[in-house]
């Protein structure tokens, strides 16, 4: 290992992550409306297109050019299904360097032409996220976080929002593709939280919602049954912007966490209690 875990031989991991996210994002955007009908993964609510696979291939090849010995976990490289990421993390989570990639987060939006999707890239060093990059090609917004060095959008330091309580909060959530257990739990929580907050958004990209919490555009985000590729980059971003990211029982974020609660920190206890009471 080099002295600084964010460089090898002077090459910055962050620069490589940014290059991968922006190249993949530009390519995804250029393919809008020009791809075959989507395939279904483990359910009719879980879509994948050739663009998801192509974006992952592009990122995997670029990472391998710079760091041939690093491990790589991409959504499209594992078996479909709710437990896939947990199993991969159990196997690969201890790797020295692990790249964790969602090549298109928000595929349903992408397929429908709803401009809210992203590329999410994280690098973990022995299980701890040290770089997180989320790119929104529709707005050309690049969110970047480095462990211990803060998080930035458009080169401007991000800071979570200042709402002091749930009653003043704008939250976001998702509607999980797994309809047996995750969706009903998430819907119950939505019903319970809606009357307690200013409002709730569900825009269809967990990674971008996490970036928006870091940027202070949302007070908090929660969802049941997410995967490491949806969350790892955003979790570092929120922590580096002064927020808190835990599972829904209040345990600190780690790569295996699937039921997420992320916030500006000020509302976190109240938020966790409302989720638990739902
Ligand atoms: C999905 C998005 C969505 C969330 C789903 C995720 P995908 O990821 O993040 O917002 O509600 O649970 O699976 O499939 O578009 O990469
Ligand atoms: Ca995703
Ligand atoms: Ca995806």
Automatic annotation (TrEMBL):
Top-rank EC class of the record's enzyme: hydrolase
InterPro entries, per database record: IMPase, Inositol_monoP_metal-BS, Inositol_monophosphatase-like, Inositol_monophosphatase_CS, Inositol_monophosphatase_SuhB
EC number: 3.1.3.25
Amino-acid positions noted as binding Mg(2+) in the UniProt annotation, renumbered to this chain: 75, 102, 105, 230
UniProt GO BP: inositol metabolic process; phosphatidylinositol phosphate biosynthetic process; signal transduction
Keywords for this protein: Hydrolase, Magnesium, Metal-binding
Cofactor: Mg(2+)
Classification via SUPFAM superfamilies: Carbohydrate phosphatase
GO molecular function list: inositol monophosphate 1-phosphatase activity; metal ion binding
PROSITE patterns: IMP_1 (PS00629), IMP_2 (PS00630)
Pfam family, one: Inositol_P
Membrane-spanning parts: none
Catalytic activity: a myo-inositol phosphate + H2O = myo-inositol + phosphate
Protein name according to UniProt: Inositol-1-monophosphatase
């Amino acid at each position: 290992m080099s002295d600084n875990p964010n460089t090898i031989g002077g090459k910055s991991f962050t620069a490589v992550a940014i290059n991968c996210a922006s190249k993949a994002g530009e390519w995804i955007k250029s393919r809008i409306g020009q791809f075959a009908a989507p395939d279904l993964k483990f359910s009719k609510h879980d879509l994948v297109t050739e663009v998801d696979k192509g974006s992952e291939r592009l990122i995997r090849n670029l990472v391998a050019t710079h760091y041939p010995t690093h491990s790589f976990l991409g959504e499209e490289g594992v078996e479909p299904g709710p437990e896939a990421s947990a199993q991969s993390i159990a196997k690969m989570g201890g790797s020295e360097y692990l790249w964790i990639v969602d090549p298109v987060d928000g595929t349903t939006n992408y397929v429908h032409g709803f401009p809210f999707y992203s590329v999410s890239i994280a690098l973990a060093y022995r299980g701890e996220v040290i770089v997180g990059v989320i790119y929104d090609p529709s707005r050309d917004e690049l969110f970047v976080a480095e462990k211990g060095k803060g998080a930035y959008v458009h080169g401007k330091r991000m800071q979570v929002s200042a709402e002091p309580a749930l009653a003043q909060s704008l939250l976001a959530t998702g509607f999980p593709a797994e309809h047996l257990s995750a969706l009903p739990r998430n819907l119950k929580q939505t019903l319970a939280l809606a009357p307690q907050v200013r409002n709730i958004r569900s825009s269809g990209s967990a990674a971008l919602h996490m970036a928006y919490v870091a940027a202070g555009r949302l007070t908090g985000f929660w969802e049941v049954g997410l995967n490491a590729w949806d969350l790892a980059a955003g979790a570092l971003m929120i922590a580096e912007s002064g927020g808190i990211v835990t599972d829904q029982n209040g345990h600190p974020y780690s790569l295996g966490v699937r039921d997420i609660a992320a916030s500006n920190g000020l509302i976190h206890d109240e938020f966790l209690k409302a989720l638990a009471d739902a």
